[in-house]
Amino acid sequence: LSDAHFGIGLYHYYAAVAPAAAKMLRFLLLLPGGDRATGLREMIDTRDKGTILQGEADYQLHWLYLWYENQPKEARRLLEGLAARYPTNPIFMQRQAEVASEYFHDHPASARIWETLLDAAIGRKVKAAEIAVVRARLGLAAELEQLFETDRAIDHLNAVVAAAPSAPYGALARAHVLLGDAYLRLARTDDARSAYRSALAHVPADRKSTRLNSSHEALSRMPSS
Q1: Which residues lie closer than 8 Å to 118 by C-beta, 6 or more apart?
Q2: What is the Cα–Cα distance from 150 to 134, expressed in whole angstroms?
Q3: pTM of this prediction?
């Protein structure tokens, strides 16, 4: 019953790393205590010996390796395995690209992964292809900006704006924000101002105070003309 160790291990691990307030709640509810090392070992046991939850174990473990274990290389290795085993699931390629950028600052590698995902999504080789196309264009545009390929980034962002997608949530506002940033780098201030205003018009109501609303700050710093 190696698969059964996954849920138990997940509980043991998070019960050990939970904030103090959560640990107090656990104490009041008479829930069992946590053990970080034991929980990790139980989840790894599922990954190595399980028959049903191996993929789920790898996916959850990659977060733990990033957030708590400071092992980004191990997280990347798990994601590579997941992407190879489940090629029609776009989440695993997306996470590969995000990890390459955020944890390794390898923007060329991240851009290549986003391009691979975009091609697969356009060819409908992955599930939820329409959403994957949007995510890939946004991710690729952000990496192209890091690589000083702003013109290419703008092309992908304009493609998202033209499609006016309703999913993923907030994608259209995000595209306008990135467009504003890109136009500013090219000193196209009128285009940037227009993009930021469009971002404000498309920010979902429950995200008014989030990063997407950075358009307010950007507009405030721009010339009034």
Answers
A1: 132, 133, 136, 137, 140
A2: 18
A3: 0.86
